[in-house]
Amino acid sequence: MLTMLMAVPAFAAAATATAGSTADIVASVSFRSGPSTSSTVLKYLKAGEKVTIVETVNSYWYKVKESQGNIGYISSSETYVDVKEQPVSTGNAVIVASVSFRTEPSTSGGRIRFLQKDEPVTITSQVNGYWYAVTDKNGVSGYVSTSDQYVKVTGQITPPITVPTGNAVIVASVSFRKEPSTSGERMRFLQKDEPITITSKVNSYWYAVTDKDGVSGYVSTSDEYVKVTGTIPTPKPDPTPSVPVSQQVESVIAAGMKYLGTPYEFGSSRNTTTTFDCSDFVRQAFKDALGVVLPADSRQQGAYVRERSSVTTDWHSLKRGDLLFFMDYKGSGASNYADKDPFGETIRHVGIYLGNGQMLHTYSTESGGVRVSDIAGTQWENRFLFGGSAL
User: Fold this and answer.
1) In sequence order, which residues have a C-beta less than 8 Å from that of residue 171 and are 6 or more positions away?
2) Which regions span the lipid bilayer (predicted)?
């Protein structure tokens, strides 16, 4: 028996088995440390034992997991193994572009492998705004980016992604406006039984609220339309009421400069300062300097600035301390951005304007973390959408 197994099997190559399929051992076969007859025999699998196919290595070898959970390699010949093919789950999402499949919802999490374009996955939950918990077609669990650049949701997520219930509910359909005024632009109608979060009471007539999708706006305070179900945050006094705006700006920039060189991490924790993504960094600078807590991501920060100040689409008109917002990278040429809509594109990046054509920001691991960059003649000039003051 040993002599026969020392050579490459002389029988016809077996069909490729789907990862995750089970198989029965039909004749005693070597369970080896590698896909080669020269690899160490770890033990012999006996007829009647069951294994799970991990991977079809080539025409002669399967990588398998035996009943004790050990991983090894066996001959793929039907003389030794009978594969019971299992249907491959189509999942509820598909990979749009190759993306890291990680052990934790963080870029510092170990990479299990790269999920490939058109590969189906099953989203089991959304950890936060940046990470999905998923299971791949082989039943392996891990985490991937929520960016639609990488993942397209194609079906229902079960269990559903939990939506915050907020502190109020809509009683009857009501206008959701961009400003606390009936002349403010209506974004849509909030519907009966829709949960919202009241962030503050602007005056006797208007609440500032956030809907279930994280969009900020204003609704009537009338109990004909809104029923308060929780606690409304008490407005905090202006942290620096007597400090000139120019001095506040310098405080924010000084606070940001303290983090020069801090490593970049996409989806960084908002509870530490060991790593930052772009919006986390801007948020921390304002929090450190003024006690002002900006929204958690760049899109919400863009909406925050538009609500509180006049904005400009010409970066040359920005003032020191203004926030700059940018669209996704589409190439180095200016022609790639000729048709951009400053207020219609999705915001993908934010930075703090320093004046003299420079900004303070962080955008990639390779760039060295928090840094100062020039705007003119770079991708940032092409990608710029609008900017304005958050103060």
Assistant:
1) 192, 223, 224, 225, 226, 227
2) none
Query: Which residues, 6 or more positions from 378, have their beta carbon under 8 angstroms from its beta carbon?
Result: none
* Secondary structure letter of residue 312 according to DSSP: B
pLDDT tens, position by position, 285-307: 999 998 888 888 999 999 999 98
Task: Report d(CA 124, CA 158) in Å as an integer.
Answer: 6
Question: Do the Cβ atoms of 24 and 81 come closer than 8 Å?
Answer: yes
**Residue appearing with tokens 């993504």:** 277
What are the residues whose beta carbons fall under 8 Å from the beta carbon of 238, sequence distance 6 or more?
none
DSSP state letter for 370: S
Amino acid in position 380: W
Are 371 and 361 in contact by the 8 Å Cβ rule? The answer is yes
pLDDT tens, 40-71?
999 999 999 998 888 888 889 989 899 888 99
Separation of alpha carbons 140 and 91, rounded Å:
13
Domains and CATH numbers, the chain: 2-84 (2.30.30.40), 93-153 (2.30.30.40), 168-228 (2.30.30.40), 245-388 (3.90.1720.10)
pLDDT value at position 232?
83
Backbone angles phi, psi at 381, to 5 degrees: -65, -40
Write down the mean pLDDT value for the chain: 85
The contacts of residue 142 (CB under 8 Å, 6+ apart) are 101, 102, 103, 112, 133, 134, 136
pTM above 0.85, yes or no: no
Residues 6+ apart with CB under 8 A from 32: 39, 40, 41, 42, 72, 73, 74
CB 249 within 8 A of CB 309: no
